[in-house]
Amino acid sequence: MLNPVDFILNIDEHLLEIIATYGAATYAILFAIVFCETGLVVTPLLPGDSLLFAAGAFAAQGKLNVWVVYLLLFAAAVAGDNSNYWIGRTIGAKWMAKGGGRIFKAEYLDRTREFFHRHGGKAIIMARFVPIVRTFAPFVAGLGHMRYPRFLAFSLGGGLAWIGGFVTLGYFFGAIPAVEENFTLAILAIIALSIVPGVWHWAKDRMAAKRGLPVHPEGAPDEPLNFD
Q1: Residue 145 near residue 89 (C-beta atoms within 8 A)
Q2: CA–CA separation, 214 vs 30, rounded Å?
């Protein structure tokens, strides 16, 4: 059985094996992983940033077509986001009421709700760069009945920034010999950078609480969501 941690940390080895084994079908596998990571609320631990970086690196080496990677994974990210949104909007409340929340850790959902309360609608874009939160953000947006045209605009913008940013990083830096020889360290650096915003906000809130200050001095979100 494949170890998820090993798959993420050694994504270059596993993706190379997938390319060698499945050839052009690799694009379908990449599409499915990105779609599930963003589109199914029960699969938040699939590789995201690291997969995009590795795909860009292999595109730079000629093993994948970079334009197919860009377009296909952008489509997967947007399709996943929108599927998750409509799942949350149509059956999210009933599912949660029937105990669906037991399938995943409650703190993941709470963290995403907090993210929305802090950033409002812009959380859809920002969540793209925060592991786990990006899986729950569209679900929570649908659960809270965020207006769909507004959600779609944020989803398109966030998907473009996320896919374009990490695939481009992989394309220009992943094939550099020093990075290629220390790919695991590069992946660890990407993971570390992705959790920095969450750690910073947590530390900021802790300091504010100790001083007796409001935890969210910036005020209410630009589009309140009806979570309850």
Answers
A1: yes
A2: 43
Residue type at 141? A
d(CA 57, CA 186): 12
Q: The whole model's pTM is what?
A: 0.79
At 191, list the tokens: 């993971």
Calpha distance 146→84 (Å, rounded): 13
Dump the DSSP string for 20-60. HHHGGGHHHHHHHHHHHHHH-TT-TTS--HHHHHHHHHHHH
**Alpha helices (H) in 127-182, listed in sequence order:** 133-143, 148-173, 177-181
A 10 A CB-CB count for 160 gives 16
Nearest alpha carbon to residue 33 among 10, 63, 11 = 11
Measured in whole angstroms, the distance separating CA 34 from the mean position of its chain's CA atoms is 9
Q: What is the pLDDT along the chain (228 residues), one digit of tens a residue?
A: 556 667 776 788 889 999 999 999 999 999 999 999 888 877 777 778 889 999 999 999 899 999 999 999 999 999 999 999 999 899 877 777 676 555 555 666 666 777 777 777 777 888 888 877 888 889 888 888 888 999 999 999 999 999 999 999 999 987 788 777 777 787 777 777 766 665 555 556 566 566 665 555 444 444 445 544
